[in-house]
Amino acid sequence: MTTHADDDVQPPAPRPGRPRDESRDDAILDAARELIAERGFGGMTMDAVASRAGAGKATVYRRWSSKSELAVDAITRGTRATLRAEDVPDTGTLRGDLAALAELRGRDKGDALMPGLISEMRTDADLAHAFHERFVTAKVDMMRSLLERAKQRGEIPPERDVDLLAEIGPALTVYRKVVAGLPVGPEYLARITDEIVVPLATAPAPGATGSVSG
Fold it and tell me: How confident is the model at residue 31 (pLDDT cuts 50, 70, 90)?
């Protein structure tokens, strides 16, 4: 497992104090993105991020416990699923809900730096773990929630494997972004929704007749 000098420093124990300043988060994430763009992941350090953001190193560690977590959040900023399922309007259809989710997330902002991050993950297990937990898993969880909502409405057959379906969209978008190096825009997301996810999710079970909702 690859280690980094910054990773040997233990983050300070959290202490009660003033409410978290979200603007400071933005400054730290911006600084991390800039440093990764300039130096690569290997050249980004928590000290350098703190200095550029005008923050103390303890402030950075209170928000991100490791360099890997900070790098993933910085690069996937605008793509990481910080939304909750209840933030997505219930439009009455799975297709409508997925379109609403795409609109809320907007266009991905981490495309340019993503290939470099993936390259580093091949030799850095901590970074790979952080990427999976903070980016991929979040996307799958959101998809699962929207699919469960559709199942409760009667759009999806009760025996359909929602866990498996939830992996399809994120798998395709991650492949396109990190392997093919292509952007993931509204048109591509609409194609996944209309040509793959919705047809697979709502198709009647084998031998069933009539509509899913009856």
Answer: very high
